[in-house]
Target: Proton/glutamate-aspartate symporter
Amino acid sequence: MKKLALHWQILLGMALGVIFALLMTNFTWGADFIEDWIKPFGTIFINSLKLIAVPLILASLIKGVSDLKDISQLSKMGFRTIGIYIITTIIAVSIGLLMVNLVKPGSTITEETRTELVESYGGDADLTRQNAEKQKEAGPLQALVDIVPSNIVGAAGSNANMLQVIFFAIFFGIGLILIPEKQSEPVKKFFDGFNEVILKMIDIIMLTAPFGVFALLAALVVEAPSADLFIALGMYALCVIGGLLLMIVIYTLLVWVFTKKTPSFFINGISPAQLLAFSTSSSAATLPVTMERVEEHLGVGKEVSSFVLPIGATINMDGTSLYQAVAAVFIAQAFGMDLSFSVQLGIIATATLASIGSAAVPGAGMVMLVIVLAQAGIPEAGLALIFAIDRPLDMCRTTVNVTGDASVSMLIAKSVGKLRDKPLVKNWDDNYKKK
Ligand code: ASP
Model:
């Protein structure tokens, strides 16, 4: 029998996970069974992906930067990457604002539902606010200070410090370019081999992906709050999801126009990473797979992907910024506030910055949303309104975040002549089959 392609296996795993959990909720012991016996496998799966993140960034970025031959190539690519990232983020926020102003989902929330939501989720929202408080107290240059680690072992000790690891790897790579070739060659060869090993480990982890996502989704279903609240927030959710879908269309068109790669080629190549982003709600956990798909299936040169993608996973979050814009205006509408044009312009700026500052982990976008709310003078208690539905939206926005990074890597690769005509892997899930 012909083996099912990986993205279908993952989709099947997701669907079966949801169905299984729905069936289990009919039994009194069902939810506990999933918590105790199924969820741990999902956690193991996410952990194994996260485990790869730091070594992968180190190996691939050091190799990528040192392959660039000279510093001017690096700065050229660096400026382009950051420039395109910021432009796509601004487009995303603007789309979000447009959608939420047209649909006005906040006005459908009754006074009664609002009180109910604030009562049910007020406590959780407080916690999020406290986390955000720490961010707000920091000085204006704190973000810059945070990029430079004082100890690389300490920095590599937590996936939340990804930007610090990236800084070290780029710095190390620059050092490698500047020393004589005789000395740099063995170091480069080492990182080359190291990189290959990591990529092989990702292949192995991906073989278990269908089971991993089964466990993740089953656990999500039994932990989800009641359906009534979802319905009250339906219009808001539709606004976010509609905007996110539009972003995917925009990426595909950008890739099509600038690289001449068809939408089906792009989506086929990137879909396993999208499905993983959806199941894990974490761009950081998905990064290893995004890199592999982009390099081997979309034809992006390693020098480009190893530079553009780790940076993108940490700073380019178009889905998150779009969500923050919609959520902020939705909360304002629900509280009966009318936001002026200049306040909305301010939201474009703060949501862009807040998405850059959001960590690539589940729920981070919501923590940073507090900053957008504070800046625009919208009541922070409103966080409680959107809590119930945040996780599903997190899944969707993370998918867009990852798709955005992948598409920008293709644009950059094209612009610096590093986009291969043919992908390394002909059949797009060949490398997962037993060789
Ligand atoms: N979960 C998102 C990500 O990892 C961040 C967010 O919460 O919006 O990309």
Q: What stands out?
A: The mean pLDDT is 86. The CA atoms of residues 251 and 404 lie 7 Å apart.
